[in-house]
Amino acid sequence: MRSLLVLLVCSEVVLSLTLSSANVDPYSSGYGEESVACLKNTGELRPNGSDYNFSELKIPVHAGTHVDAPGHMYDHYYDAGFDVDSLDLGVLNAEVLKSLNIPRGVRRVIFRTLNTDRSLMWKKEFDTSFVGFMKDGAQWLVDNTDIKLVGIDYLSVAAFDDGIPSHLVFLESREIILVEGLKLDGVKPGIYSVHCLPLRLVGAEGSPIRCILIE
């Protein structure tokens, strides 16, 4: 893990605060223009004389605040059906404690890093200098804690230079759920209830997710 990482740890995860991105801009997933989110307005879709509006939303499943399923990195997990619909919602919803240590028994943790101080989640272009886990830091967390949910304040839990290896470490056991792209402005250490609900996308390896913290 990079030395700049500041931990905010959750005992079971993590005022009422909405942690999810309100909008998704063209580069917010980090994959370029091919992953642009698109909302067709009702004026384009409503036929003349129609009695109702009908909007259409097209969005990459890893854009903005989102959750990763094991099938995101492992083909055999994807083929076996370990998709978003297989995730344990009990892990994504609970009371949480945040501190600077990760004792045994802690099952959910949210990391508030310099990404928040630098307002990276508010920038339009993807920033490769974000704080995230290197492979050895991810492995330490897996080997030395009981954590089942890892949340972070940018679009990837893994550092840019170690993106694939770190994801592989976290997702290999299928026991850890990754929540990425959280907006943690104004979040302080304390005891909270967390509520994170992904879309029920059968066959998808990721999903946009709405997360709120309640003090």
TrEMBL record:
<feature type="signal peptide">
    <location>
        <begin position="1"/>
        <end position="16"/>
    </location>
</feature>
<dbReference type="Pfam" id="PF04199">
    <property type="entry name" value="Cyclase"/>
</dbReference>
<keyword id="KW-0732">Signal</keyword>
<dbReference type="InterPro" id="IPR007325">
    <property type="entry name" value="KFase/CYL"/>
</dbReference>
<keyword id="KW-0272">Extracellular matrix</keyword>
<protein>
    <recommendedName>
        <fullName>Cyclase</fullName>
    </recommendedName>
</protein>
<keyword id="KW-0964">Secreted</keyword>
<dbReference type="InterPro" id="IPR037175">
    <property type="entry name" value="KFase_sf"/>
</dbReference>
<comment type="similarity">
    <text>Belongs to the Cyclase 1 superfamily.</text>
</comment>
